[in-house]
Specification:
With 174 residues, the chain is α+β, with helices and mostly antiparallel strands. It contains eight helices and eight strands, in the order αββββββαββαααααα. The strands form two sheets. Strands 1-8-3-6 form a four-stranded antiparallel β-sheet. Strands 2-7-4-5 form a four-stranded antiparallel β-sheet. A hairpin with a 5-residue loop joins strand 4 and strand 5 (49-55). Helix 7 (150-157) packs across helix 8 (161-173). The longest helix has 27 residues, at 101-127.
């Protein structure tokens, strides 16, 4: 059974700024992050990139909702540092879930994890201050300020880079 799973995966390296999936593409693959940091983002009407999530070691990512619905992705997935991991064929995984209970349980676990992360993001945006969201992000991704641009961090926090700079200055000073 392990060989079934290995057969749908291939080791993949993405350079910094390389896209895994672009808006408008019909995605076929999910990605399991081994090293590095990826992000998902959307383009706003004015062309501004709005970061939705960061993905780090062990995270499973990709345009999953687009693959589930068999529609073009509305979201971009991009490496923001060098990323290594495993690319897997989504539809082959679904086929395995229909044949083997273990793969169904794996798929359920992936969906649960995605749901819990999305719920946490929504809760944080609605209940935490921008400083508290920044501190939570720093806790989740240690050394984030040296790994990700200030623009990407600010975009994820839904604040301006100037606001982030002020928060960082106050945080260092405390």
């Amino acid at each position: 059974m392990v060989s079934n799973f290995k057969s749908l995966l291939s080791y993949t390296e993405l350079d910094s700024n390389q896209y895994f999936t672009k808006n408008g593409e019909h995605p076929k693959y999910f990605f399991i992050v081994k090293t590095g940091i990826m992000r998902s983002f959307v383009l706003n009407e004015n062309g501004t990139k709005s970061t939705r999530a960061f993905f780090t070691i062990g995270d499973v990512t990709g345009a999953n909702s687009a693959m589930m619905r068999n529609v073009p992705s509305e979201v971009n997935y991009q490496a923001i540092t060098k990323v290594t991991g495993y690319k897997g064929d989504f539809h082959k995984l679904i086929d395995l879930t229909l044949k083997h209970k273990e793969f169904s349980l794996f798929y359920i676990k992936i969906l649960e994890d995605a749901y819990l992360k999305a719920e946490e993001i929504l809760l944080n945006v609605s209940t935490l201050t921008s400083k508290e969201r920044y501190l939570a992000l720093q806790k989740r991704i240690p050394n984030i300020d040296n790994l990700i641009t200030q623009r990407n961090i600010a975009s994820y926090l839904n604040i301006s880079p100037v606001q982030l700079s002020r928060i960082r200055k106050k945080n260092i000073g405390s």
